[in-house]
Amino acid sequence: MHLSFSNRYCQSLLSCVLAVVVVGGLFLWQGHYGLNLADEGFLWYGAQRVQQGDIPIRDFMAYDPGRYYWSALWMNWEGSHGIMALRRSIAISQALGLAVAVTLVARMLPRSESSKARTLFLAIAALVLGLWMFPFYKIADTTLSILLVAALAFLVQRPTYYRYFFTGIVVGLVAVFGRNHGVYGLAAGFGVTVYLALTRRSWVHFSKACLASSIGVMNGFLPILFMLTLVEGFAPAFVESVRFILFELKSTNLPLPVPWPWRVPVAELSRFDALVKVLVGCFFLAVALYGAFAIVGVLWRGWVQRKPVAPLTIATAFTALPYAHYAFSRADFEHLALGVFPLLIFCFAVLARQNGWVKWVCVSVFAMASLVTTVPHHIGWLLGPQCRSGQCTDIEVVGDRLTLHQATATEVRLLQSLADEFSPNGRAMIATPFWPGAYAVLERKSPMWSIYALFPRSETFQKAEIERIKAADPGFALVMDMPLDGREELRFSQTNPLIYQHIQKTLTPITDQAPGSPYQLFRHP
Question: What is the pTM assigned to this prediction?
Fold first, then answer.
């Protein structure tokens, strides 16, 4: 489809407006709700430490550096260490990703479509895609997947060497924010390059394209290359993080059983809850099927039959399989949402090309299925009714007023009271393994590198952590020695036994705890 510059400009402007409206609406609805001391706290603590000059991966356990510097830049601009500044920085990246996704869909709409119908269709797409951008603290991952799809579609539309170079830059830059996304981008980009070589019958083109892409990847990855070269201690820490994943953990995540729709215990659930779980299972099934068969379909039509294939279809086909890996690496709704976007963009692209009542019936069904699947997982849906029934409370956390469930508010107050009594004046403390956000709430530096100590660690690693703990002299320790995912071998006392024993030997247990408390509390003797 060829559009004039003015039409493309109007489409892009409309997509940006819709993205801002949807993201702004979602933020007003739920931006002040809740506080996840685990995964959200992991990002929040890292952004705080970057504000203080620490280096991700070298100085603390972290994702790849890009997202921390993005968030810290905005938080510094606001002059805040708080969670709301972090969330606003995430909302900006969400609006960026959503605008790109809606623009991709907009360019699939027929030129004959009326402006009202076009606006309605894109508004539905923006709302559905915006709701699928979950969880909020991992929206950077969603945006990265969208940018990869967009870059590959841009390449396929006119595969010049300049565009190969540009696509390589995008892949390299994406890896700055998440090396797994870089790997996914390399796999998808190589697949697209092979496809273009097959359909153009030119392996000379293939070799030159690979060279141009490789140069682009190196340019996009320059921030990490500079850090590896110029930042003292970063290179060995980066290499060690890769070695640990490949040779010790041997996995990118802690797996969960796939919630296929036929496994849902329908009889044990309410009708609505059963419907939500069945739909989640159906989307997992759709991700698996699209990831498995999309490339075959594209190759059959484009290479064997020599028929034209839409650039966006090719881009989503080759990104679907890598992101299916992401979705199934830990098969819960959170990871489904992080891996589903190639499929979602493809579905809206197909629906955009339909005509008449078929289009609107299919769009309505798809949108309703997505709404029922996604909305019940959002914190605004979960906390809203509870807050209206008096189960929530407002509490100030690092200068921000948050509305928290009373259980979460109790946890925050516990941390604040422990810090006031046992770690005044900024003294170090320990919260392990599930609450990296505790350090962010108290604005303290973790004495341990492993702020989210979920995995089994070697004796050498644990001894190094113990030396850090000794040097920090913490005033108290909060240990949650619980079985992650119900697995006894993933208790902190099993994954890091030497550290656990050190805490028990050097700190004094606090015995006046409520019966059944999930915490083990220790204080300085």
Answer: 0.96
